[in-house]
Amino acid sequence: MSKRKFNIEYLIKLQALFENPVAGFIIFNPDASMEAVNKTMARQLQMDKEEIEGRSVHEFLDEHDSRLMKLFMERFLKNEKDSALEVNFIPSNGTDNTLEMAVAGSHLDGEIIFIGISKDISVEKNLRDELENQQQAHKKSIKSLKKESAFNEMIKRFVDMAAHEFKTPLSEIFLALDLIKRYTEEDGLEWQKFTYHQQIEKQERYIRDAALRIKSVLNGFLSLSTIESGDIQVEKTEFNLKSYMESYKDKMADLVKDRTNISFNLEEADHNVKTDSQILTGIMNNLMSNALKYSGNQDEISVEARVKDHKLFLIVEDGGDGIDDEDQPNIYQVFFRGSNSFEKQGSGLGLTITRKYLDMLNGDISFASKKGDGTNFEITIPLDNHE
Predict the structure, then answer these.
(1) Cβ proximity of 170 and 215 under 8 Å
(2) 23 near 118, Cβ under 8 Å?
(3) What is the model's pTM?
């Protein structure tokens, strides 16, 4: 292809322009063939100048930008001048570089040329692509979270409805069982003469135990639902910790009369503390329930309460089954039950509720356990004041 011959003044200006190390420049003809490129343009395209010059501009444009370029050039040749055109210049040698190019037409020495000024936007494009991917991933995450939230809300409503709906039938079952027991006790001699009285008494115990299990599970559901809905408010009152624990000890003795091996260490508990006693009772109930459930009648259970450094410490230790190593990371998850708990009563909610109670009091819980060697739970609750 023959080179265009321009006057000396133009060549000097063109040379100065082409030597610009920042921007890439390209000159092409009305037939779209590229007549000249500068070194920066060649470097941006990662090609030699000789590989570029003489080729069609359209080889470096995608289908969309190629149509825009044709329309722009046609309009310029018809004197329907547009100010400029911006297209993406893509190397045809398979490299990842993408150039943003501003194109303008010009009349020089009575001839028409087109000049392109390029900027390497590969980094910006990669960043935009990465940002777009992140945004898409974020949208998917939000969509997934919304679905999960909707599902959890549906489960919560079902649990709330089921728990409330079961309360009345359960109350009626317990009332019927109490009436049966009262009638049999009042008319004991006649009842003993009844041929099947032992079988009926045995079935009555089975029914009562089953109803108590259902009641325990429903109470757990309701407690968790109430906590998560924010209906429970922390109400701190001042009380003597030792007196509180002695009262709790007496209640436990009445509830588990067959367990005489439960000890309470209250030597360092004789302090007035200010915290929510009802939440504290809920925490104690859950920890004691676990200790009783996973230890045998001959296993020791020890409870210690003390105050130190403006903190209340509660320690419940049992000599029971212990927690398997693989189960330990999951014990606070909702409905989680360890591998040694399938034959035991429970819903897998006790420790979940305990931890949520402690969150409400800005407290903490830790444990140490070894399979077959019992479990030690330690509760720490910061105190507003104590004496």
Answers:
(1) yes
(2) yes
(3) 0.52
C-alpha span between 76 and 260 (Å, rounded)? 102
Choice between 3 and 26, residue whose per-residue pLDDT is larger: 26
3 state SS of 156? helix
Count Cβ neighbours within 10 Å for each residue of 112-150 and write b for 16 or more, e otherwise. ebbbbbbebbeeebeeeeeeeeeeeeeeeeeeeeeeeee
Strands (E), 223-347: 237-240, 262-265, 272-275, 301-308, 311-318
Q: Are 294 and 318 in contact (CB under 8 A)?
A: yes
Lookup: tokens for 285 = 């109930």
The C-alpha atoms of residue 385 and residue 387 are separated, in whole angstroms, by 7
- pLDDT digits over 228-260, tens only? 777 778 889 999 999 999 999 988 888 777 776
What is the CA angle 22-123-69, rounded to 5? 70
**pLDDT score recorded for residue 298:** 80
The CA distance from 114 to 1, in Å, is 17
8 Å CB contact between 299 and 319:
yes
Q: Are strands 364-369 and 301-308 parallel, antiparallel or unpaired?
A: unpaired
Retrieve residue 250's tokens.
């007496």
CB count within 10 Å of CB 242 equals: 20
The two structure tokens encoding residue 13:
């200006």
- The 8-class DSSP code of residue 240 comes to E
pLDDT band at 385 (very low <50, low <70, confident <90, very high): low
The answer to whether 323 and 371 have CB atoms below 8 angstroms apart is: yes
Letter for the amino acid at 310?
H
CB atoms within 10 A of CB 215: 16
Amino acid identity of 352?
T
Beta bridge partners, 373, equal none
Instruction: Give the C-alpha separation, 353 to 227, whole Å.
Output: 8
Whole-number Å distance between alpha carbons of 245 and 250: 9
- Tell me how far apart the terminal alpha carbons of the chain are, to the nearest angstrom: 100
